[in-house]
Design goal:
The complex is a heterodimer. By secondary structure, chain A is of the alpha/beta class. Among the domains of chain A are: 163 residues, Flavocytochrome C3, Chain A, domain 1; 146 residues, Up-down Bundle (Methane Monooxygenase Hydroxylase, Chain G, domain 1), CATH 1.20.58. In chain A, 38% of the residues lie in helices and 14% in strands. Chain A contains 18 helices and 21 strands. In chain A, the strands form six sheets. A five-stranded parallel beta sheet of chain A has the order 5-2-1-9-17. In chain A, strands 11-15-14-12-13 form a five-stranded antiparallel beta sheet. In chain A, strands 16-10-20-21 form a four-stranded antiparallel beta sheet. The longest helix of chain A is centred in the middle third of the chain and has 27 residues. Chain A is globular, with a radius of gyration of 25 Å. The N terminus of chain A is likely disordered. Chain B is elongated. In chain B, β6 and β7 form a beta hairpin. Chain B folds into two domains: 108 residues, Beta-grasp domain (Ubiquitin-like (UB roll), Roll), CATH 3.10.20; 121 residues, Alpha-helical ferredoxin (Fumarate Reductase Iron-sulfur Protein, Chain B, domain 2). A five-stranded mixed beta sheet of chain B has the order 2-1-5-3-4. In chain B, strands 6-7 form a two-stranded antiparallel ribbon. Helices cover 38% and strands 12% of the residues of chain B. The longest helix of chain B has 20 residues. Chain B is an alpha+beta fold. Chain B has nine helices and seven strands, in the order ββαβββββαααααααα. Classes of the chains: A alpha/beta, B alpha+beta. Bound molecules: flavin-adenine dinucleotide (FAD) and FE2/S2 (inorganic) cluster (FES). The site of FE2/S2 (inorganic) cluster (FES) has 13 residues of chain B, from loops.
C-alpha cells in the first residue's frame, strides 16, 4: 500500500461540493430573530403527519426529541444505551455558560460571542456562535423551570463561577454534576413526551446505516443490541445527536461506549466530516498509571478557579519526586515554577485548555514532570485553602485565628465547592488532595470537529441534521469550558425545533416513508453483510487490541502537537492497521445475540477510517490554531502561529478509501477583527 | 496479585445460570473493571466468550455498572460504584464472587447484565415537571433558599443504578422513587404537581413488580450516592396525605 505523498494531487479528483452556510442576511445581532420570525412553519395538523428520527438522547438529542414531541411531531428516538439517562452527557462536571450577567460583571451576549470566537481561534462561523450566545440565556431559564437544582447563593439567587479563557463569571453549576442534572432535566422532559405518546423510545438500538432516498435522508438501519436483529426505521428526516469521537484515541475522558459510528455511517452515505483534526486535549486529567488502563478521568476545569498549576524549578527535584524520594510538600515556595502564572499573567491558571495543555507538555518534555512516567504536573489547592480559611474565620469573628482552624475552615469551603471531585480523585489515586497537590496531565476530552452543518444545522445531505458534539458548528479550533452543554442544549431546545421546519415545510405532502423502499433493503443488506464479514474473519487479535494500537498512533502523531513528517508516517500506519484489522480481528460469540464485542468491532472499524481522515486534515492545515498545533508553525515563544489568509476555512472531508477529499467553506469575519490570541 | 473469581454466567432470562471459576492476575493500581477487562481479554485470547457486564463512564456517574461483589451491591466500600473500586483494596489470593443485581423487576439479559427499564417507566409515569420548552420565566424569578436547593440536589444525585433494589430483601424501589419525588418536591417549580406525581409513581412502581418497603435500610447503606432513607419517609407522608386528599375530593 502506498500513500500519496503529494496530497495536492487529490484535490482535482472530484468537483468541489458547494458548501452554502445558509447564514441569513442582516446585522449579526438581528439575524436569528428575523430569520426565526420569517422562516417557514409547519402547521399543527401537518406536524401530526410528519415523522422525525432522532438518534442519540444525550443533552442534544433528548432536548431535541422532547421539544419536537411537544411541538406535535411524531418522534422516534434511538440510543444504544439501556436508558437515555446514561448518555455520556451525564458525566459533565463543571458547568454551563450563559450570558445572563447576573453577577453584573460586564457580561453580555456580545461578550460571550466574542469569547467563543476568540477562544476557538477564529475558526468558527460568526452567525452560529452569536445565535448560541443569544439562546444561552433561555437554557438556564428552561433548566430551572424543569427543577434543575443549580447552586445558589444565600440570597436564593443562582451562583456562578469562572471557566478558562474568560474574565467574567458566567458558568452555572450543580456541584460537580452539572451534566447529570441537565441531562436528567432533559430526560424527564423526554420521559413526559414518551408517556404522552409523542415520542417512541428505542433503547439498546444502535444505528448502523443511514438511508438516503432520492438525495434525502429518510431513515436508518439499526441493530437491536439485545438480540442482534437488524431493523429498518423510516421517517421524513433524520437528526443525529450522537456525540463526539474522542475515543478514536482509545484513552480519553469520554465514556467507554462513545463512538463515531452514527456520524461515520452518514459520511459513508455522503455527509461531510468537518475539521476532524480539531480535538480538545483537556489539561487537568488524572495521569495514566499503566498499560491496562481503559480510560482517563477528568478533573473539572472549575478546579483551576482555585488550583495553581506548578512543577519544580529544577529537574533534580522533579526526579526526586518521580522516584519517591521527595513529595510536593518538600519543595519550597521559591523552588516551584507556577508556569502558567509566569507565562500568562493576565489569565494565569485560567488560560484556555489548548494553551494550558501545551504548556504542561512543554514542562514535561523539558523533564520537569512529577509522576513516574514523567507525564504529570501539580494542581495545588494549598493557597486557596488558606485564603478561604482566613476569610471564613473572619466572618465567624476569629480575627487572629490559629493556623489549624484556618486550614480546617478552608478545607471546608473547598469541600463544598469541589467535594465530589476531590473524592473521585482520592478513590482513583489513593491520595488525599486536601493535603497533597493533585497530579494531573492533559488527556483527550472533546472533539470540535464533526459533521458539517449549515446555519440550520443541516448537513450537506438534505433532511439530515446534526446536533451537539456530533456537529462541528460553534467551537472552531478550541472549545471554551462549559460551552458544550450550552451548545448541546441550544441546538436541541432552541435551534432545531425552528430550523427543521425549513426542510419539513417542503414535505407536508410527502406521505409516510415506507421502509419497503429498495433503498432500505439495500442498506439493510449492506449492514448485515458488513457484520457477517467481520464475524467471518475469525482472526487472532481482539477488537480491543486494535483499538489500543490505533489510539497510540493518533495520540503520538495527531495529538497535542503534530508535524508533517509524523503525520505522513501515521497515515501509512493507520492504513496498515486497518488492513490488518480486516484480516485478523477475532470476535467471539454470536451475531444474533447480546454481544458487546460485535458492537465494539463495528465502532473500531469506523474509527480506523476516521483516524486516517483526522491525519489528512491535520496535514492539510499548514498552520497552528487552537487545539491544532503544527510544530512547523509557531512563534519564537512557542505560541500557535495562525495563517488566516490561507486557512480561515472549514475543511469538510468526503470519505474515499483511497483518497479522501477536502471541500472548503471560506469563513468570513464581518464583526470581529482577527487577532493573535493573547492571554498574556 | 493472583485472584480467584467466581462469576455468574447466564445465557439469557430463561437460562438457570451457574457460576464459572476463573484465575486472574491483577495489579493494585487497576480498577475493578480493568481487572474484568483483563479477564475478558484472556478469555477472548482462548477463543471463549467473555463475561458480559455493563459499564460506560467508569467514574461513578452514569449508573450503568452493576455488580454484586461478595454479596454486596457495588462491593465493600461506602459511597462507591463498582467502576470506582480499585484493586488495592484486595489481597493476593482473595476469592471474589461476582453476581448480577437480582430482582424480579430486573430480569437478567446475559451474565451480569440486567434490564432496568422499569426505572424509566417509573419516571415516565410522573417523574418530571410538566413544562414545555420556551415556557419558562427568568431563572432568577423565584429565589430558592440555598439549603433547600442543596437538599434537592442531595436527592437528585441518584444515578439510577438500582443498587437499592438489589440490596433490599424485598427488592423494593422506594429509595429510587422517593429520591425523585423529594428532588422535585423540594423545588418550588415541582410542588404544583406533587400529589399527582407521588400517586402515579408509586402506582407504576407497584405495577413493575418491585416489593414493599419494610424499613430494613439496606438501600441507604449500599447506595453509591448515599441517598438518604429520609426520602422514603417524606414520600410516604406525601402519599398518605395525597390519598386522603383525593378521597375527600371524591
Ligand atoms: C468527563 C467530561 C466532563 C465534561 N464536563 C463538561 C462541562 O462541565 N461543561 C461542558 O459544557 N461540557 C463538558 N463536557 C463535554 C460535554 O459533556 C459533551 O460534549 C456533551 O455532553 C455531548 O452531548 P451530546 O448530546 O452531543 O452527546 P452524548 O451525551 O455523547 O450523547 C450521545 C448519544 O448518542 C447515542 N448514540 C451514539 N451513537 C449512536 C448510534 N450509532 N446509535 C444509537 N445511538 C447512538 C448515545 O447512546 C447517546 O444517547 C465534558 C465531557 C467529559 C468527557
Ligand atoms: S460505569 Fe458509570 S457508574 Fe460505573
Amino acid at each position: 500500500m502506498t500513500v500519496q505523498p503529494d496530497r495536492n494531487v487529490s484535490k482535482d479528483l472530484k468537483p468541489q461540493i458547494n458548501l452554502d452556510d445558509k447564514v441569513p442576511e442582516g446585522a449579526l445581532d438581528e439575524k436569528w430573530t428575523k430569520y426565526r420570525s420569517t422562516m417557514n412553519l409547519v402547521a399543527p395538523n401537518n406536524k401530526r403527519r410528519i415523522e422525525i428520527i432522532v438518534v442519540g438522547t444525550g443533552l442534544a438529542g433528548a432536548s431535541a426529541a422532547a421539544t419536537l414531541g411537544e411541538l406535535g411531531y411524531n418522534v422516534k428516538a434511538f440510543t444504544f444505551h439501556d436508558s437515555p439517562r446514561r448518555a455520556h452527557s451525564i458525566a459533565a462536571q463543571g458547568g454551563i455558560n450563559a450570558a445572563k450577567n447576573y453577577q453584573n460583571d460586564g457580561d453580555s451576549v456580545y461578550r460571550l460571542f466574542y469569547d467563543t470566537i476568540k477562544g476557538g481561534d477564529y475558526r468558527s462561523r460568526e452567525a452560529n456562535v452569536h445565535r448560541l450566545a443569544e439562546v444561552s440565556r433561555n437554557i438556564i431559564d428552561q433548566a430551572v423551570a424543569q427543577g434543575v437544582p443549580f447552586a445558589r447563593e444565600y440570597g436564593g439567587l443562582l451562583a456562578n463561577r469562572s471557566f478558562g479563557g474568560v474574565q467574567v463569571s458566567r458558568t452555572f453549576y450543580a456541584r460537580g454534576q452539572t451534566g447529570q442534572q441537565l441531562l436528567l432535566g432533559a430526560y424527564q422532559s423526554l420521559s413526559r413526551q414518551i408517556s404522552l405518546g409523542n415520542v417512541t423510545m428505542y433503547n439498546r438500538h444502535e444505528m448502523l446505516d443511514l438511508v438516503v432516498i432520492k438525495g434525502k435522508a429518510r431513515g436508518i438501519i439499526t441493530r437491536n443490541l439485545l438480540n442482534g436483529k437488524i431493523e429498518r426505521h423510516a421517517a421524513h428526516c433524520v437528526v443525529l445527536a450522537t456525540g463526539g469521537y474522542g475515543n478514536v484515541f482509545y484513552l480519553s475522558t469520554n465514556a467507554m461506549n462513545s463512538n463515531v459510528t452514527a456520524a461515520w455511517r452518514a459520511v459513508r452515505r455522503g455527509a461531510l466530516m468537518a475539521n476532524p483534526s480539531f480535538t480538545q486535549i483537556h489539561p487537568t486529567c488524572i495521569p495514566q498509571s499503566g498499560e491496562y488502563q481503559s480510560k482517563l478521568t477528568l478533573m473539572s476545569e472549575s478546579l483551576r478557579n482555585d488550583g495553581r498549576v506548578w512543577v519544580p524549578k529544577t529537574k533534580e527535584d522533579a526526579i526526586a519526586i518521580r522516584e519517591g524520594r521527595k513529595t510536593a510538600l518538600d519543595i519550597a515556595e521559591e523552588d516551584r515554577d507556577y508556569y502558567l502564572e509566569r507565562r500568562y499573567p493576565a489569565f494565569g491558571n485560567l488560560v484556555p485548555r489548548d494553551v494550558a495543555s501545551r504548556a504542561a507538555k512543554v514542562e514535561c518534555d523539558k523533564g520537569h514532570g512529577i509522576v513516574p512516567t514523567g507525564l504529570g504536573v501539580f494542581l495545588d489547592f494549598a493557597s486557596a485553602i488558606q485564603r478561604y480559611g482566613k476569610s471564613e474565620a473572619h466572618s465567624q469573628g476569629h480575627h487572629d485565628p490559629d493556623p489549624a482552624l484556618v486550614t480546617r475552615l478552608g478545607e471546608g469551603v473547598i469541600k463544598e465547592k469541589y467535594g465530589n471531585l476531590f473524592q473521585m480523585y482520592e478513590k482513583i489515586s489513593g491520595e488525599n488532595p486536601y493535603k497533597m497537590p493533585m497530579k494531573i496531565y492533559p488527556a483527550v476530552h472533546y472533539t470540535m470537529g464533526g459533521l458539517w452543518v449549515d446555519y440550520n444545522l443541516e448537513t450537506n445531505v438534505p433532511g439530515l441534521f446534526a446536533l451537539g458534539e456530533a456537529n462541528f458548528s460553534d467551537h472552531g479550533a478550541n472549545r471554551l469550558g462549559a460551552s458544550a452543554l450550552m451548545q448541546g442544549l441550544a441546538d436541541g431546545y432552541f435551534v432545531i425545533p425552528y430550523t427543521i421546519g425549513q426542510f419539513l415545510s417542503g414535505e407536508i405532502r410527502t406521505p409516510w416513508i415506507s421502509p419497503d423502499e429498495p433503498e432500505f433493503a439495500e442498506a439493510e443488506n449492506a449492514t448485515r453483510e458488513r457484520l457477517e464479514k467481520l464475524m467471518s474473519i475469525k482472526g487472532s487479535q481482539s477488537v480491543e487490541s486494535f483499538h489500543r494500537r490505533l489510539g497510540k498512533i493518533i495520540w503520538e502523531y495527531c495529538g497535542m502537537s503534530r508535524n508533517a513528517e509524523g503525520l505522513q508516517k501515521a497515515r501509512e500506519m493507520v492504513r496498515e492497521l486497518r488492513e490488518e484489522f480486516w484480516r485478523d480481528v477475532f470476535i467471539p460469540g454470536d451475531l444474533n445475540d447480546y454481544n458487546p464485542e460485535v458492537e465494539k468491532a463495528g465502532r473500531v472499524a469506523d474509527f480506523l477510517e476516521l483516524g486516517e481522515t483526522m491525519i489528512l486534515d491535520a496535514l492539510d492545515r499548514d498552520e497552528s490554531c487552537g487545539g491544532h498545533f503544527r510544530e512547523e508553525y509557531q512563534t519564537e515563544e512557542g505560541e500557535a502561529l495562525r495563517r488566516d489568509k490561507e486557512f480561515a476555512y472549514v475543511a469538510a472531508w468526503e470519505w474515499d478509501s483511497e483518497e479522501p477529499q477536502v471541500h472548503k467553506e471560506q469563513l468570513t469575519f464581518e464583526n470581529v477583527e482577527l487577532k493573535t490570541r493573547s492571554y498574556k | 496479585m493472583k485472584l480467584t473469581l467466581k462469576v455468574w454466567r447466564q445465557k439469557n432470562a430463561q437460562d438457570k445460570g451457574h457460576f464459572d471459576t476463573f484465575k486472574v492476575e491483577a495489579h493494585e493500581h487497576m480498577s475493578f473493571l480493568e481487572m474484568m477487562d483483563v479477564l475478558n481479554e484472556s478469555l477472548i485470547a482462548e477463543g471463549k466468550e467473555p463475561v458480559a457486564f455493563e459499564h460506560d463512564c467508569r467514574e461513578g456517574i452514569c449508573g450503568t455498572c452493576n455488580m454484586v461483589i461478595n454479596g454486596r451491591p457495588h462491593g465493600p466500600m461506602q459511597g462507591t460504584t463498582t467502576c470506582q473500586i480499585h484493586m488495592r483494596h484486595y489481597n493476593d489470593g482473595d476469592t471474589i464472587v461476582i453476581e448480577p443485581w437480582r430482582a424480579k423487576a430486573f430480569p437478567v439479559i446475559k451474565d451480569l447484565v440486567v434490564d432496568r427499564t422499569a426505572f424509566d417507566r417509573i419516571i415516565q409515569s410522573g417523574g418530571y415537571i410538566s413544562i414545555n420548552t420556551g415556557q419558562a420565566q427568568d431563572a432568577n424569578a423565584i429565589p430558592i433558599e440555598k439549603d433547600t436547593a442543596a437538599r434537592a440536589m442531595d436527592a437528585a444525585e441518584c444515578i439510577g443504578c438500582g443498587a437499592c433494589v438489589a440490596a433490599c430483601p424485598n427488592a423494593s424501589a422506594m429509595l429510587f422513587t422517593s429520591a425523585k419525588v423529594s428532588h422535585l418536591a423540594l423545588m418550588p417549580q415541582g410542588r404544583v404537581e406533587h400529589s399527582r406525581r407521588v400517586q402515579a409513581m408509586i402506582k407504576q412502581m407497584d405495577e413493575e413488580g418491585f416489593g414493599m418497603c419494610s424499613n430494613v435500610g439496606a438501600c441507604e447503606a449500599e447506595c453509591p450516592k448515599e441517598i438518604s432513607i429520609d426520602n422514603i419517609a417524606r414520600m410516604n407522608r406525601s402519599y398518605v396525605a395525597s390519598v386522603l386528599a383525593s378521597e375527600k375530593a371524591v
